[in-house]
Specification:
The complex is a heterodimer.
Chain A (H helix, E strand, L loop, with lengths): L5 H9 L3 H12 L11 H13 L3 H17 L3 H7 L6 H13 L4 E4 L2 E6 L2 E4 L5 H14 L3 H10 L3 H19 L4 H20 L4 H4 L2 H11 L10 H28 L1 H5 L10 H7 L1 H8 L6 H5 L12 H13 L2 H4 L1 H24 L4 H5 L7 H28 L3 H10 L2 H12 L7 H11 L1 H14 L13 H32 L2 H20 L7
Antiparallel strand pairs in A: 1-2, 2-3
Helix pairs in contact in A: 3-7, 4-8, 4-9, 10-13, 12-13, 13-16, 20-28, 22-23, 22-26, 22-27, 23-25, 24-25, 25-26
Chain B lengths: L11 H10 L2 H9 L11 H8 L7 H10 L1 H12 L4 E3 L13 E3 L5 E6 L6 E7 L12 E6 L4 E6 L6 E7 L3 H7 L4 E4 L1
Antiparallel strand pairs in B: 1-8, 2-3, 3-4, 4-7, 5-6, 5-8
The chains are: A mainly alpha, B alpha+beta.
Chain lengths: 538, 188
């Protein structure tokens, strides 16, 4: 991703573009003539949060009042007011208000509060907000370069309707400006396009049943070339469907709670009403789109990569990359098993094409479109199986370490694997002991009863041989191995689940080769349309 | 949304709100990530500082943008009108090789160019303000010379007895720009 477009990379990695990061940082760093920062941290923080959350409608309405009043009352207007002299502090603004009030028709003092009386509206001017208003102006001029011209109307007169209209227009400008710089809205838009398409395909079917592998593939075939949503890459479509799947799942949970409160909702026959048009979706489908925007829950791979677990190499970088993709797709892999493997296999091929277009202007494109050099489903499936084995091996190595510390978890894991006969023998040995058998005694017994059960642990430990698995760690580190093992367990379950799902697919359709053959044809056709002409923008 | 103090811990409530919006990562990136290869923006206050004759960390960006960014140029032109002391319109004269001696502004201010007797390469650029134009006694004057394609500024010391002057070298860009028959001059 990074090799293709650095700016896009930040948008994907952090959800905010490099340009917007830069813009906000430059505003923060602005200093006055004496080198003092112009905006306080409180103002900067509030503005950043509002922008990133796109939660600025109310603030822009408030902002419009401040700048309308300043433009109307000050001699040289807003820009000179904010930056003609040093930092705009609340004390300076308060002082200015006191002065301006003397000859003003709209500024009134009421119980030590200064209000702007604009038509029938009374707006309290809080001096503590002025520094924030200055920061907003710096950003607003970036968003709307003609702001200065628009302010001129306030110079002549103050009118509440004009202020409201100004605030509304400014909000629209902000929305449009931020759209390419923040990821979530783009994702929401993609989600809406996909939803509308699914609805059009399937009428009023239950929304969950609409999300099928074949529907996803068809959607991509029909939308890869359209401008709306940017669905050129199959992986984009796949990611969008995973998010949608998650949103539907989360939404269903929420709706279950809601329906317990209001039976009417279920009876109304409006079950499919969440597939709504653009206008009404904000109100009616707030829940769905909130989930589309929601942060991912903590992921096992992420946790393993964070301190202090990152001191132990539970996964190689390559393994981590493989698992994190699967983990991001989450539960959707069981509903959309083919979409996932298609995204991994054909998505990779598409990435090679776009990279080829970038690096060689498409000199290898014909080969790539013809799938001359291509690792298919079976190769990927083998990698998956191998991955399951590698995680299992690491988990055994963890048990070996725990066993050296005579940790109960290790004994439990070992006993779990014993045969019925071995378990009986162990019970017998325990019965012959005067006290409860723990620690070293238990270990000695286990070695004697099931020597072969311990051997694989030792073997796994020496095989893993990565950082954290080269020497037996100190006892104060044992907890970290336990936590790491929990995350590995999560990953192992997920990978196994997906592997089983693929096995079922193979069973029902004969083999993966048949599906792959059809898919190769389908993908090749779309790739030809997208990249057939060398030089097509990737 | 309650404010966060500098580098202080984010309140749980804030964290929850930001998490609900899915922007914790984005906020962290804005606080810590250093973007590379992205153009720094020209802020409106940088333009105002340039107009007022101040030099800031953004001055260089303003000078570049004035030549290649129409938006910045438009804002600059708009801000020139704010706090304007005098405007001297284009000469509307046929081009000649002679050095101009005097220009008169809309409110009667004079801009004179006088060759130094001691050094032929040097000229005094003089601003003379009539009594009708009042300027703060300690305020330096800033002259902005603009053609369609070029912008130059020069900072003059505060007016004394209605007069302020600087020395220009014949090779200065401002000197040649002032000779341009298309030049428009603003005094701040």
């Amino acid at each position: 991703m990074e090799t293709l477009n650095q700016a896009l990379s930040s948008l994907v990695r952090f959800g905010v573009s490099d340009q917007l990061i830069q813009d906000l940082q430059v505003i923060e760093e602005t200093s006055d003539m004496d080198g003092k920062l112009l905006y306080d941290h409180v103002a900067i923080y509030e503005m950043r949060c509002a922008i990133l959350c796109r939660n600025y409608a109310k603030t822009l309405w408030e902002y419009s009042h401040y700048i309308a009043v300043i433009e109307h009352e000050s001699d040289y207007g807003v820009i000179d007011f904010f930056w003609g002299q040093n930092v705009v502090t609340h004390a300076r603004f308060k002082h200015w208000l006191e002065d301006a009030m003397q000859g003003s028709e709209c500024l009134k003092k009421d119980n030590s509060v200064i209000k702007a009386v604009i038509g029938n509206r009374e707006f309290i001017l809080n001096p503590k907000r002025i520094n924030l208003m200055a920061a907003w102006t710096a950003f607003a001029v970036m968003v709307e370069p003609n702001l200065l011209t628009q302010l001129a109307s306030f110079k002549r007169s103050l009118n509440e309707k004009e202020i409201d209209t100004f605030a509304k227009q400014l909000k629209s400008k902000f929305d449009a400006y931020l759209e390419p710089h923040l990821q979530a809205l783009h994702q929401q838009r993609q989600g809406r396009v996909l939803l509308s398409w699914l609805q059009a395909q399937a009428g009023h079917q239950n929304h969950k049943t609409l999300l099928q592998d074949e529907a996803v593939l068809q959607f991509w075939q029909q939308n890869a070339e359209t401008e709306e949503g940017d669905f050129k890459r199959f992986t984009t479509v796949a990611d969008c469907t995973y998010r949608l799947h998650k949103a539907v799942e989360l939404g269903n949970d929420q709706r279950d709670v809601e329906s317990a409160r209001s039976y009417h909702q279920d009876q109304s026959g409006e079950d499919a009403a969440w597939l709504l048009d653009e206008v009404s979706q904000v109100e009616a489908d707030g829940w769905l789109f909130e989930h589309l925007m929601a942060d991912e829950p903590t992921q096992a791979v992420t946790s393993l990569g964070q301190s202090p677990l990152d001191q132990i190499k539970f996964l190689t970088n390559k393994d981590a990359e493989f698992c994190s993709k699967l983990e991001l797709a989450g539960a959707a892999i069981t509903t959309l098993p083919l979409t996932y493997i298609r995204a991994q296999v054909f998505g990779l091929q598409q990435a090679r094409m776009t990279e080829d277009l970038r690096a060689t202007k498409g000199s290898n494109l014909a080969k790539l479109i013809a799938f001359d050099d291509f690792s298919g489903f079976n190769v990927w499936h083998e990698t998956l199986t191998e991955q399951v084995g590698k995680i299992a091996q690491t988990r055994l190595a963890v048990v070996y370490i725990l066993l050296q510390h005579e940790h109960p978890t290790a004994f439990a894991r070992l006993i779990e694997k014993l045969t019925a006969e071995q378990k009986n023998a162990l019970q017998q040995a325990a019965a012959n002991q005067p006290n409860t058998m723990i620690g070293n005694q238990l270990l000695v017994q286990l070695k004697s009863i099931a020597p072969l059960a311990i051997k694989p642990l030792e073997k796994a430990y020496s095989k893993v041989n990565r950082t954290g698995f080269k020497t037996i760690p100190e006892s104060d580190q044992v907890n970290e191995y336990l936590k790491g093992d929990e995350h590995l367990n999560t990953l192992e379950r997920l990978l196994t689940l997906y592997s089983e799902k693929l096995a079922q697919l193979v069973e029902s359709s004969g083999n993966l080769d048949g599906i792959e053959k059809n898919d190769t044809h389908t993908f090749s056709q779309v790739f030809k349309r997208l990249y057939g002409e060398i030089g097509v923008e990737a | 949304m309650s404010p966060q103090q500098n580098n202080g811990p984010m309140s749980e409530k804030d964290q929850a709100i930001l998490k609900a919006y899915g922007v914790l990562n984005a906020l962290h990136a804005v606080n810590t990530h250093q973007p590379e290869g992205v153009k720094k923006p020209v802020l409106i206050n940088d333009i105002l500082a340039y107009i007022q004759g101040r030099t800031t960390s953004g001055t260089e960006r303003v000078e570049v943008a004035l030549n290649n960014d129409l938006t910045v140029r438009r804002q600059y032109k708009q801000l020139l009108r704010v706090n304007q002391v005098e405007h001297i319109a284009k000469p509307r004269a046929a081009h000649s090789d002679d050095v101009f001696e005097k220009r008169i502004g809309e409110q009667g201010a004079l801009l004179k160019l006088k060759q130094s007797k001691g050094n032929e390469e040097q000229y005094y650029l003089i601003i003379e303000l009539p009594n009708a134009i009042s300027v703060q006694s300690d305020k330096p004057l800033v002259l902005h010379a603009n053609t369609e394609s070029q912008t130059q500024r020069a900072v003059f010391p505060p007016v004394h007895d209605g007069r302020s002057q600087i020395i220009l070298n014949k090779n200065d860009v401002l000197f040649s720009l002032l000779q341009d028959h298309d030049v428009e001059i603003d005094i701040q």
